[in-house]
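NRK1 kinase: structure tokens wanted.
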Amino acid sequence: VTNGGKTTLAEKLRNMLPNCEVIFQDDFFKPEYEVETDECGFKLYDELDALYMDDLVKSVRDWIKCPASSVAVTHEPQNTCDNPQNTDDAYILIVEGFLLYNYAPLNELWNKRFFLTLPYEECKRRRSTRVYQPADMPGYFDGHVWPMYLKYKSELEENAIDIVYLDGTKPREELLSYVYNDIIQELKKLRE
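Answer:
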């Protein structure tokens, strides 16, 4: 969900986890002139077509091929990407964004999926405090942003994708602790 705390959570995790890199979906938005406009005059930023999703997939796949070369390591790796299976070092990639699980080419790449949710009123309140470029037009949240969130969330639920839903109204520290511990448990499973 927009303004759910995705970026804050990803950045805090990057600072806490060793050998952790974050790819932000927002870095793959098309320029404004390439984003379609609907009949109400709303720029359709909350749709997959507003993003260079193939470039995002390529970035993720490139990282997977050689994580040690792209991550700002928090300690010296024992070896290079030529022989990563022989190391005890874990490399962690967090991909942060709002339409990640609705794009089929990415779904085969995830070890874990987290989805922050917010109720309508809280989401709208948070969104109203942010400044976007281009700025939100009057009625944009109700006319485009929220309906698209509901549409894409419904698709996830229909497809029964394995996702951990997180309540974005919970304290940041609680969410951070939960996700951090879940990642640590996942790392332990992968090493067994």
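The chain has one domain: 6-75+84-190. The helical segments are 6-16, 53-65, 67-70, 104-107, 120-128, 140-158, 172-191.

Cheers.
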